Amino acid sequence: MSQFSRWTLYPLPDFFTLVIFIVSYKTKCFRLSIQSVKAYVTTQANTDGWTTSSDTWVYASASTFTIAGVDRTAVYTKGTRLKFTQNTVKYAIVVSSSFSTNTTVTIAVNTDYVIANAAITSPYYSYQANPQGYPGWFAFTPTWGGFSSAPAGVSTRFNIIGPRVKYELFAGQGTSNATTFTVTVPVAVASYYNGQFVSEPIIAVDAGTNVLAYATFGSTTRFDFYKTLALGGWTNSGNKGVWMQQEFEMG
Question: What global pTM score does this model have?
Answer without folding.
Answer: 0.77
